[in-house]
Structure formats: C-alpha cells, structure tokens
Amino acid sequence: MSERVEIMFTEEEVNKRIRELGEQISRDYEGKQLHLISILKGGTFFTCELAKRITVPVTLDFMSVSSYGSKTVSSGIVKIVKDLDDSIEGKDVLIVEDIIDSGRTLSHLMELLEKRKPASISLSTLLDKPDRRVVEVPVDYTGFVIPDEFVVGYGLDYDQKYRNLPYIGVVKFD
Ligand code: IMP
Ligand code: MG
C-alpha cells in the first residue's frame, strides 16, 4: 500500500486566507495587545504566518498537549506535555490551533486556561471539520471549513510525517 497526498489548498490559497484573518484580528484587537498561544506542534506553521499579519503588538507562548488515543482519533483525555512559560492573567489571549476535529482537545484546554483568569480568550483554527464535532467549542477565527477527510501539511501530520508540506493535502492510500 502506498501513500500519496492530494492538494486541497495550495500554499498561495492558505497564505491569502491567513492574511485575511490577520487583518480581521488586527481590527478586532485595535488598541490592545494580543497574547498568542500556539499549540505545538501542528499550530506553529499557522502561528508564524498569522503573527506576521497582525499589526497590534503581539506576545507569543507555546503549549503542547497530547490527547491519548490512536493515530487519527482523539480520546478527549488531555495531558499537558509542555505548559506555558508565562502567566496569562489579565491578558487578551488568542489560541492558535491547526485543526478542530471532535473539539475535545480545545474544549479541555479552554476550560483549563479560563481558570488562569485571562482578560479574554478567543480561538483561531486554520481548519475546522464541523461534521466530526462531539463537543461544542466557540471558534472565533476559522481559516477553512473542510469535509471529514484526514489532512496533512502546513503543520499537520500523519504519523509525524508531512508537517513541512507548504500546502494542505489529503492523504490517499492506494
Ligand atoms: P480533537 O480533539 O478531536 O478536536 O483533535 C484535534 C487534534 O487532532 C488536532 O490538533 C490534530 O492534532 C489532530 N487531528 C484531527 N484531525 C486531523 C487531520 O485531519 N489531520 C491531522 N491531524 C488531525
Ligand atoms: Mg494539534
């Protein structure tokens, strides 16, 4: 069985959409300072591209969570692998995630971060698969809504591979 990747969104399409999100976020946070929380590892490519397009002052932190489960399905039990370096108390926080699937990871994470008393907390995701949602999560900024397919590239992996692809694609097995 061999794997191949079919392009879903080209690098140009992805970057254009991220630029639009950056402009929207800059307008929404005008006069404020924004604290980005990038979710490792998948969210980092989106974070870099987005941060460059935001015109209000930005600070940046990283968090790594793992949800126990198989390669393609998350269980909803979230473990903090790497916590934030800095306190988020009183800050306007924007979480930057690669994809929301069942919503379990993010709903757990947001609950946890709310307890740390940020001034506000919003959520941005490059991709959203609403058909797969098990737990509701309030998404404020979405790059692309996609059908229920397993996608890779632009930070997203299949078994840790393909994160470095500059586009978003679907893994096909044949
Ligand atoms: P959720 O808890 O089910 O929303 O899982 C979200 C996490 O599952 C994402 O942060 C990804 O790490 C992973 N994931 C879900 N769907 C995909 C996909 O299509 N490609 C790659 N990773 C995915
Ligand atoms: Mg992830």
Short structural summary:
Helix content is 23%, strand content 38%.
Written overview of the protein:
The protein has three helices and nine strands, in the order E-H-E-H-E-E-E-H-E-E-E-E. The chain is an alpha/beta fold. The chain has a single domain (11-146), classed as Rossmann fold (3-Layer(aba) Sandwich), CATH 3.40.50. It has a six-stranded mixed β-sheet with strand order 4-3-2-5-6-7, sandwiched between helices. A three-stranded antiparallel β-sheet has the order 1-9-8. The longest helix is centred in the N-terminal third of the chain and has 18 residues, at 11-28. The mean pLDDT is 94. Magnesium ion binds next to loops.
Strand and helix layout:
Layout: E1 3-9, H1 11-28, E2 34-40, H2 43-53, E3 58-69, E4 74-82, E5 92-100, H3 104-114, E6 120-128, E7 141-145, E8 151-152, E9 168-173
Magnesium ion binds at residues 39, 42, 98.
Counted beta strands: 9
Question: How much helicity do the residues have?
Answer: 10-25%
CATH class term: Alpha Beta
Main sheet makeup: 6 strands, mixed
Tally of separate helices: 3
Q: What small ligands are held by the chains?
A: inosinic acid, magnesium ion
* Unreliable segments of 5+ consecutive residues: none
CATH architecture, please? 3-Layer(aba) Sandwich
Radius of gyration: 16 Å
And the CATH topology? Rossmann fold
Q: What is the count of distinct domains?
A: 1
Beta content comes to 35-45%
Lateral arrangement of strands in the main beta sheet = 4-3-2-5-6-7
